[in-house]
Design goal:
Layout lengths: L1 H10 L6 H8 L3 H9 L6 E3 L2 E3 L2 H11 L7
Antiparallel strand pairs: 1-2
Length: 71
C-alpha cells in the first residue's frame, strides 16, 4: 500500500483541488482561477469539480514562461 502511494505521487497522477494547487504554486487561489479561465493550465473535470495534476500544471507554466518563474 505505501509503495503504491509513492508511485502515484512520483508520477504526478494524483489530483488536487484549486486551493491545494495555489498552495503548491505559492500563489492566491484567484490566480489559479485566472490561469484556468485563460486556459493556461490543464484541468480535469470530475463531475462539476475542477481537479489538477500538479506535474502537468507545472510543465504547462514552465513552457509558457521563458523565465520559468511563478505564474
Amino acid at each position: 500500500r505505501g509503495m503504491k502511494n509513492n508511485i502515484v505521487e512520483n508520477t504526478g497522477t494524483h489530483l488536487i483541488d484549486q486551493r491545494e494547487l495555489a498552495r503548491l504554486l505559492g500563489c492566491n487561489p484567484r490566480t489559479v482561477s485566472n490561469l484556468l479561465r485563460r486556459q493556461k493550465i490543464p484541468v480535469i473535470k470530475v463531475g462539476t469539480l475542477n481537479r489538477f495534476q500538479p506535474i502537468r500544471v507545472i510543465e504547462a507554466l514552465a513552457e509558457a514562461s521563458p523565465r520559468g518563474g511563478k505564474p
